Amino acid sequence: MALASETKEVIVLKQTQKKDFPYVMKSLFAGGVAGMCSKTTVAPLDRIKILLQAHNKHYTNFGVFSGLAEIVKRESFFALYKGNGAQMVRVFPYAAIQFTSFEFYKTLLGSILGNGSHIGKFVAGSSAGVTAVTITYPLDTIRARLAFQVTGEHVYNGIIHTAKSIIQNEGGVKALYRGFVPTLCGMVPYAGLTFFCFESIKKFCLKTLPTWFSKPSDKDSGGAVLTIPAKLLCGGLSGALAQCVSYPLDVTRRRMQLSSMDNNAKYGHGMIKTLVTVYRTDGITNGLYRGMSINFIRAVPMVAVSFSTYELMKQTLHLDTGVDS
User: Fold this and answer.
1) pLDDT in tens, the chain (325 residues)
2) Is the pTM of this model over 0.85?
């Protein structure tokens, strides 16, 4: 009994550990590394997704794999990673802020609604996504512009040149936030569902199927952590489910971001008008859900690698990864 009491006291101390400056910096670093690993893993799929979503004239008649092959043939192998430099500049602070703010919001809402609250987890995930995307959105616009370019038809020559050109020629800093409203509208269900689903599936695996999906650990408050295959499974399922809900708004965002390029001028006049124009012009399958097959292919490994890396980094850096009570 005394040993059990001491164990409980240790668990409580870990669960309520002060989130001091070193802790926050470790959490930011863990999230940043997770984001960079996940985005680099699916960078080629991200590029073909952008080209298909915005109907680039050179890739209109291609599918996922034929489009990837055409990029290599038309441009080069390294063109598969075009725009990934801007992506890395964006994704480290984005993922760092998202994961760290999620931990903050989860703790805050947990103290109000209880650690097991499903609403709290959803709101924490949504708030984390909104926080991260608001701070880093201009870099997403820049990355999309760079990724949409085809070799031999370059308009922009790097991150700084792209930013300067957009600001000077398209109405100032606000042009860097074109497509921001549909991004926010899509981020709430996407980030909320992603984190909610991951936390829920993770908790289910740890509590219901510990023999299959967990291994003992003395570095976290729950006494057990997910195995790497279980992390990948939880992350992959979470990403796939969340994408189904928010995808049309992702298409809308891309059309608005790229409205000044190619033949996309009709898509730069507000979220609702762009959404309606996409639907009327291209329909549901070839418009609002254009590139969705790519999204499923990329979402599963992307989210799986992201959450798995984050969980591993937290364990490596001795951050608390215990399952909620």
Assistant:
1) 443 444 344 444 444 445 567 888 888 898 889 889 988 988 998 898 888 877 788 888 888 889 999 999 999 999 999 888 888 888 888 888 888 888 889 888 888 887 777 788 888 888 998 999 898 899 889 988 988 888 878 888 888 999 999 999 988 999 999 889 888 888 888 888 888 888 888 888 877 777 777 776 655 545 567 777 787 778 778 877 788 778 888 888 888 887 777 555 555 567 888 888 888 888 887 888 887 777 777 777 887 888 888 888 888 888 764 444 4
2) no
H/E element holding 216?
strand 214-216
Sorted by sequence, the CB contacts under 8 Å of residue 247 that are 6+ apart come out as: 186, 288, 289, 292, 295
Alpha helix locations (H) across the chain? 2-15, 21-41, 43-53, 64-74, 84-113, 118-148, 159-169, 180-208, 210-213, 228-257, 271-282, 292-316
Instruction: Report how far residue 183's alpha carbon sits from residue 133's, in angstroms, rounded to the nearest whole number.
Output: 8
Q: Which of 8, 9, 30 is nearest to 318 (CA)?
A: 30
CA-to-CA distance for 180 and 261, rounded, in angstroms? 18
Q: How would you classify the pairing of strands 224-226 and 214-216?
A: antiparallel
Task: Judge contact between 262 and 148, C-beta under 8 A.
Answer: yes
CB atoms within 10 A of CB 201: 20
**Residues facing 224 on adjacent strands:** 216
Long-range contact pairs involving 36-41 (C-beta distance under 8 Å, separation at least 24): 36/88, 36/91, 36/92, 36/95, 37/305, 37/306, 37/309, 38/95, 38/301, 38/302, 38/303, 38/305, 38/306, 38/309, 39/84, 39/87, 39/88, 39/91, 39/302, 40/84, 40/88, 41/301, 41/302, 41/305
**Which of 27, 147, 31 lies closest to 87 in space, CA to CA?**
147
The residue type at 116: G
Residue in 33, 121, 28 with CA at minimum distance from that of residue 319: 28
Burial class (CB in 10 A: 0-12, 13-18, 19+), 270: middle
Say if CB 163 and CB 138 are below 8 A apart. yes
